[in-house]
């Protein structure tokens, strides 16, 4: 659920006067996206997405996000293309919020991704990483390892409300990860949130990546570790090795991992699980019931953390150590 | 907010196999409609709305609603046209719920309707009433005068929680309305919920009526009274006589009121205000916070009830007694 801000026809017409996207035929608030308000527009020139950036998004970050989408689209990555206003800008203001219009991507996100989808998302992630290498802007990843301790400090006293012992368990994991986090792996632009709802398909063909609002400059292999968490676990929290193998094969077919990246994958995957556990835990404990922010169960990521703790090598995720490392 | 039921790509593909509407390109849950889950579909043949009927809708009523839309569309009324399945049916099942696909109507609902919009909605309501005269199915209006007492019995003990004195005030109004409700005005199919969010416009041109899920067989003039409540009050609860005049002129230009209908308009308008007050009050008191049912303030209709109590004649709503009565 994610229309926080309703907009009326008068302010919308005034906003659209700044664009050359044709005559407005309809606008519908869409129930996707967790952070912002999104409308699907039909005009006589096509379909577009209008996004109103709500308070969880820092408006100083918008030029990075918009610039990244422009850069990636230019490089042939299928992602929404920000539409320029007549005055050349890509960000305007609507209903008191920063707002942008991007092209609409056809495609559907997979509630039940298959092995083929996992392969395709690995491939697309690697292509995105390569395409982003010469993107000139930087944005620190506030939700990388250095950001976890402050999040945890705000939640740890009540963690045991979710499951007895979760406080001590998480404390130990966090200390381990802070001590073991790799310092010098290849970096670049990462998506940082490439979950199934951010990847569109038409059949088995990947038609686009969306929602770059967590994108930042960080370790590329960490992005892959996020995807292992997001795509390769089943609803019963078992790791699907066939999907892991496909995801990694898709990725390394485009961008082989370095030896150090491969060796770090278990730590990175464990860190990625902790990162999503922490933000879910924070919301679980702090967002009031009945808010429009959908609260997701942090235990789904505690289960992943426990899995990753037992992993000794990237081979256990499906990486072919003899083939997929450069 | 109104996507109660998420659907996955597998069950959706199976459902769409029953239709001949082209190749699915995207489906987005849309945040409109209060009772059901609605998806906007894009296919290579156009746009459609997929509705999953949630538990507030009685599935035995669906043939009436669907049949009515077919009937009205056939008669030239701009409303969604139910799409036939390959097997001829118009209702299927998806995610354990009855589901139907209708054509998508371009247009926008007016958050801030103008006088011109009020005239257009009056005109369209009258055309709908005429077009419905030979519709052969009947559906009792469960939310007409005989349905108010049971609703009230479930809410009256707690009405004073909303405003002290509301219990006695409503009791008196209800008793008055039960005693004064007109028995023999012209009847037919009414929309019964023709609020601004159910009427689409392209500029000042009315492009369609939607959401027939309260439609029923009742007094035609009562439908007009609902519209007076829905379209002609300002946000400060003042009645806008210019809008009232335009709405009534639009209606009577197509279907002049009978003398008895005109005389009954103040009672009907008072009843319509009570009807919406009662359902809002019921939800206000009974729907838990944080439910996806959006709770609207019953006091907005208490304010209208108080206004209508002081009205002596339809002229005070803007009816030209010498011209608009047949």
From TrEMBL, chains A, B:
Which key words are in the record?
Amino-acid biosynthesis, ATP-binding, Kinase, Nucleotide-binding, Threonine biosynthesis, Transferase
Q: What class of enzyme is it?
A: transferase
Domain of life of the organism in this record?
A: Bacteria
Question: What pathway does the UniProt record associate with this protein?
Answer: Amino-acid biosynthesis; L-threonine biosynthesis; L-threonine from L-aspartate: step 4/5
Ranges for domain Aminoglycoside phosphotransferase come to: 27-257
This entry's Enzyme Commission designation comes to 2.7.1.39
For whether the record's keyword set contains Phosphoprotein, the answer is no
According to its UniProt record, what is one Pfam family this protein matches?
APH
- ATP-binding as a keyword of this entry, yes or no, is yes
The GO annotation for biological process reads: threonine biosynthetic process
GO molecular function terms listed in the Swiss-Prot or TrEMBL record: ATP binding; homoserine kinase activity
Residues spanning the membrane: none
The catalytic activity, as recorded, is: L-homoserine + ATP = O-phospho-L-homoserine + ADP + H(+)
* Family according to the record: Belongs to the pseudomonas-type ThrB family.
Cited PANTHER family? AMINOGLYCOSIDE PHOSPHOTRANSFERASE DOMAIN-CONTAINING PROTEIN, AMINOGLYCOSIDE PHOSPHOTRANSFERASE DOMAIN-CONTAINING PROTEIN-RELATED
- NCBIfam families annotated for this entry? PRK05231.1 (NF003558), thrB_alt (TIGR00938)
Name of this chain's protein:
Homoserine kinase
Q: Which organism is it from?
A: Phyllobacterium leguminum
